[in-house]
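re: the backbone from monday

yeah here it is again, tokenized this time
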């Protein structure tokens, strides 16, 4: 496997995992929660490192998941006390992320975990940190292996809880009346968001994680109203953005993660213009058709 192939595979795994999760975030109108969690997991990563003195291992995923759950809990707690939802996200997001930044700057400054790495990631270095798969002797980048496992987890949980998450996304009150554990499903989903975020963190940084969680799903939403098709489209848009973003970065000699995030915006722009139901062109054409038939 070539150097470029590993980068594209790693980024595509991020695009597929984040793209599918992002669909439920968009449908639940929780896009800003994705932004908040993608930043506040930094606090969980830093605390896990301070306890274990290692940037590798399952403890990083556990720390990030706990930080994501803490973010979700605090936002809902403030909202229950009368604070507006967006204001709750703003307060929790900035406060927890600021604590993480301070700890990175003051307590673990001698490691490669710094603010620039946190925001932009180091996807160009992914192919150099490899591990050997047992029984095969095949070398694979550690980040790619972790992201592949997370992708399988995301896919498995979506298939297992497809109906439940579909109902809670469109009508939480109906889900509660049917006896579904709405709160439990919500926290399970937020845990999955946190795990996916931290798995992508080291490779692509917070900027691309936010872009992949929100933009492909928003683009897919413009093309279809069927959840299954939306999931497939969102994952596909994540792959397209990853591949096109890499070659755009090579052409411009710039940040790979930044170019991939920019590519998600281009995909959304194309969807916003050419979508057959919600696109700008279709909105211009429909009034003309209506006037011709009247």
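seq for it, each position gets an aa:
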């Amino acid at each position: 496997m070539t150097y470029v192939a590993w980068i594209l595979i790693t980024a595509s795994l991020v695009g597929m995992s984040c793209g599918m999760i992002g669909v439920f975030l968009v449908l639940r109108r929780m896009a800003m929660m994705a932004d908040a969690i993608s930043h506040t997991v930094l606090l969980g990563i830093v605390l896990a490192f301070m306890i274990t003195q290692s940037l590798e291992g399952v403890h990083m995923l556990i720390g990030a998941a706990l930080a994501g759950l803490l973010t979700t809990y605090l936002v809902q707690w403030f909202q229950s006390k009368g604070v507006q939802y967006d204001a709750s996200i703003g307060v929790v997001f900035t406060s927890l992320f600021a604590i993480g930044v301070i700890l990175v700057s003051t307590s673990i400054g001698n490691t490669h975990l710094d603010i620039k790495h946190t925001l932009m990631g180091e996807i160009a270095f992914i192919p150099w940190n490899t591990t050997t798969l047992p029984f095969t002797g095949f070398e694979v980048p550690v980040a790619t292996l972790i992201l592949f496992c997370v992708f399988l987890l995301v896919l498995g949980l979506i298939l297992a809880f497809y109906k439940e998450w579909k109902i809670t996304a469109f009508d939480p009150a109906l889900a509660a009346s049917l006896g579904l554990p709405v709160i439990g499903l919500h926290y399970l989903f937020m845990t999955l968001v946190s795990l996916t975020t931290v798995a992508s963190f080291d490779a692509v940084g917070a900027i691309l994680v936010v872009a992949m969680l929100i933009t492909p799903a928003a683009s897919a939403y413009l093309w279809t109203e069927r959840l299954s098709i939306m999931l497939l489209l969102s994952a596909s848009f994540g792959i397209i953005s990853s591949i096109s973003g890499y070659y755009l970065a090579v052409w411009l000699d710039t940040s790979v993660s930044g170019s991939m995030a920019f590519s998600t915006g281009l995909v959304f722009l194309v969807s916003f213009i050419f979508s057959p139901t919600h696109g700008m062109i279709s909105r211009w054409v429909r009034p003309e058709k209506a006037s011709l038939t009247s």
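Confidence is low (pLDDT under 50) at residues 290-294. The chain has one domain: 3-214.
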